[in-house]
Write the structure tokens for this entry.
Amino acid sequence: MTQCCINPSILSADFVNLEAELQKISNADSVHVDVMDNHFVPNLTMGLPVVQRIQAVSPVPLDAHLMISDADRWAPGYADAGLASVTFHAEASIAPVKLARELRARGAKAGMALRPATALEPYLDMLPELDMLLIMTVEPGFGGQAFLDLTLPKIRRARAAIEGSGVNVAIQVDGGITEETIVRAAEAGANVFVAGSAVYGAADPSGAIDRLRKAGSL
Ligand code: DX5
Ligand code: ZN
């Protein structure tokens, strides 16, 4: 059995009590922090100063998901802040290879995200530049949306490409992950799962993490 990673998204947490909310997920692998700029996506969350405070009090490493325009300009600052993992959107980067190298050079794991309708194939040759590929399973911007099954073939193609080339790249999925959909995503080849409402909407967030980890580990 391969144990998967569960990264709860604090987008569904109580933003006024983030420190207490973070303590509820100390059994998670990382905490997924959604940065939105009201430009790349039609929603606004937080910027680097808030992310740095979250990092200071979090019991687990940070996995930043930058849903922001002009990623080439802003993403390196998140790596400079010492975040474990920084994921930018391919659609928001002019020079994704250069950006991924900059993130790694600054000590972060480099992640690249694809919106549901963005094809994987133009990016296959840059897989060795990445530590993680994030395949969005909803349109980015909001928590609580339904999982898009149309993304499953892309997850399968990504898994096949990674196995075929022997690179060590995690496949993260984000959006609509529940104890039910996580099984389909895992069978398709994902191994890092973001869950917002399924964790913070549960009566017992840490129990929900354990149940998701069990369901998503094949
Ligand atoms: C959506 C965000 C997600 C979101 C997931 O744009 O990137 O991380 O919080 O929320 P759920 O798990 O509720 O779909
Ligand atoms: Zn996210």
Remarks:
- The chain is about 35% helix and 20% strand.
